[in-house]
Amino acid sequence: MNQTLQLIANRRSLRAFSDEPISDETLETLKEMTLRAPTAGNQMFYSIIEVTDPARKAALAELCDSQVMIATAPIVWIFLADVQKWENFYSEGGSYAKGLERGIKVPEIGLGDMHLALQDAIIAAQNAVISGEALGLGSCYIGDIVEQHEKVKALLGLTPHVMVAAMLIMGYPKSKERTGKQSKRCPASAVFMENYYKEPHLEQLKEAYKAQEQDLREKHSLPDDNTGSIADRYYFKKHTSTFMAEMNRSAQTMIDEWKNGGKNGKSSY
Ligand SMILES: Cc1cc2nc3c(=O)[nH]c(=O)nc-3n(C[C@H](O)[C@H](O)[C@H](O)COP(=O)(O)O)c2cc1C
User: Fold this and answer.
1) Residue 245 CB neighbour total at 10 angstroms
2) Which residue ranges of the chain lie beneath pLDDT 50?
3) Domain ranges of the chain
4) Measured from the CB, is residue 234 less than 6 Å from ligand 1?
5) Ligand 1 pocket residue status of 141, Cβ below 6 Å
6) What separation, in Å, do the N-terminal and C-terminal C-alpha atoms of the chain show?
7) DSSP 217
8) Phi and psi (nearest 5°) for 51?
9) What CATH homologous superfamily does 3-181 map to?
10) What CA–CA distances, in Å, run from 70 to 38, 52, 96?
11) Residue 23 CB–ligand 1 contact under 6 Å
12) Is the CB–ligand 1 distance for residue 243 below 6 Å?
């Protein structure tokens, strides 16, 4: 198989890292390749916080549902949807003022801006994942970074039009970590839909997630003494969990602050 395809086909999340240091050269290459990701209008509506301070890594580990591997990961990157920088560029560079002279009111930084910036940041993150694999570095996304927005915001110094999009931890694998079974996926026929959305219902869903359910049953990881379904598992373990409730509250706050908190928004002109 083509080397790039092989790399993508074999990728899996890595959660245990070796102590092997990452050279400056490798890190530089990883950064350059990350930034080659496509970006809306080539504006690069994102920033990446590279967390190097061990105390901050430990604080993030705690904030992200006590996932201790964050504290020991050699690379901890937080991808931010960043419209703040363009807001500053427009305002400090005089574009807003020029627009006002021409009768153009300063528009709000809206949810469309937010969505584009989130796309930019997440696409860059996945470039980092694949480039990392090519450099021998494994990675794992940390979804819990979306929880506890207020604390994350304070720790990272975020402003209203800067939103956490994704978090990645990376490093060289600890020996043998990657020899385990790769996680299963739904077949392409269950995910791709031709021309329009076709709402999946029970029978198709059962078929789509059959392989994952089988793996979980083999690991005795299904509820009700392993007799429950994969849907039961995710419903009880994740969807109704306190961490999911917190993630929903936190994400709502992030969006509310984005909508209401912009210092250069329409309201201030
Ligand atoms: C948005 C997102 C959030 C994730 N959050 C976590 C996390 O907080 N902790 C973790 O151990 N893995 C996390 N993962 C990794 C997934 O569990 C993993 O990708 C999934 O189980 C499939 O396994 P694979 O990546 O090895 O193919 C996350 C992945 C994504 C894409």
Assistant:
1) 12
2) 264-269
3) 3-181
4) no
5) yes
6) 58
7) H
8) -90, 115
9) NADH Oxidase (3.40.109.10)
10) 28, 11, 41
11) no
12) no
